[in-house]
Amino acid sequence: MNIIKKRSWRPIGLLLLWGLGCSTALAQLTAIVVVEPTARKAAHSILRTSAESGLSKAVGQPVALTTSDDLADVMRATRSAGYDIFIAPAQVAASALQRGYELVGATHKSDKYLLVGLQPIAAVPAMKGRRLYLPQQDSVYTYMARGMLNEAGLSFQDLRAVQYEKFPQAGLTALTLGTADATVVREDDWAEWSAAHPGIARVLATSQPVPGGFSIVVKKDLPADARSKLAQWFSTSSSASGLPLVSVRPEAMEYRRVAELGLFTPTSLPGVNRITAREAQTLLAQGATLVDTRTEKEFKTKRIRGAVFAAYVEKSLKDVAFNAAQDDFQALDKLPGLDKAKPVIFACNGAECWKSYKAAKVAITRGFQSVYWLRGGLPEWDETGLPTEGG
């Protein structure tokens, strides 16, 4: 009787498995077109139904396409892998690329962004106490502003006001009207505006290249065949739906820079001597102590020869106005034989690593009298060809 029962259920089980297989094969993919507030015309030119149809036909399964200009919400979606495909500006793609997505390409050449201010403002540090005009907080313009201010040792907290509006080009108008002291614009927009309005403003800082237009990223865990078909459609057929063809493939470094913008350390630190790798080598030879503030795993894997380990456990914001009370740097006090009167150098993983910056600043407050900061950290030391150990 048991044998008969097993046989009678087997066809049904097979049918269920076949049905599940079909369901997986025909599962709906999700895609989103993310639009900067300044590029709404790009969204209006995209024919959503046509794009859905084209993508579905290309990949052989249904694709649901939505659009959004709510960048804060979209950035949350990159962190939760909320869509299979992001068609988005560089900062959205950069976030997704850190979370299980791969790059198909971009629709336009890379752009540079400029922090521009009224003529009386001589340099970025003079922005302290001034008014800055920016679009949405998660727009690429805001990313640029945060990064350029941080590099000069300023944060948004140092400004009198940060005005968030919809359109960055209006920031140039705000400069003309005197309702803002500085704004961020694309290099091409600045060239056109400054030619028509000479003598009003000047360039305070220029960004590295940032991928332009839309960047397309897809989930890495999609089948290889599906990813290949999607890439081909974006490169050859998307223009029929009003979406520009993918024509360039920016370097991965450009996206990493965008992801790190606003997270780069300043180029100087009051009360602390910033030094190069060669200068650090000379100081070490003269008896200075070099403190590696990275994690123990990083330290054991590879380190500057002669460095000592004291982890800076970082929980505070990566900002010049960080709250040291949120961090843990007890390891510094536990280093044997460390003399506060003698030179001490702090280093970590380069310009985007805040641990050594914070450690150097904390050391000053704890009474260290001769503090040095190797901003380039291990990467600069390594690139200079200086000796390392560990591993």
Structure overview:
The protein has helices at 2-25, 40-45, 48-59, 71-79, 90-97, 140-151, 169-177, 187-196, 224-236, 252-260, 277-285, 296-301, 330-333, 355-365, 377-383, and strands spanning 29-34, 63-68, 85-88, 101-111, 113-118, 131-134, 161-164, 182-186, 201-206, 210-219, 273-274, 289-292, 303-304, 308-309, 344-347, 371-374, 388-389. The chain has 391 residues and is an alpha/beta fold. The chain has 3 domains: 28-111 and 210-260, 3-Layer(aba) Sandwich (D-Maltodextrin-Binding Protein, domain 2), CATH 3.40.190; 116-206, 3-Layer(aba) Sandwich (D-Maltodextrin-Binding Protein, domain 2); 273-389, 3-Layer(aba) Sandwich (Oxidized Rhodanese, domain 1). Strand 15, helix 14 and strand 16 form a beta-alpha-beta unit. Helix 3 crosses helix 9 (224-236). The radius of gyration is 26 Å and the shape is globular.
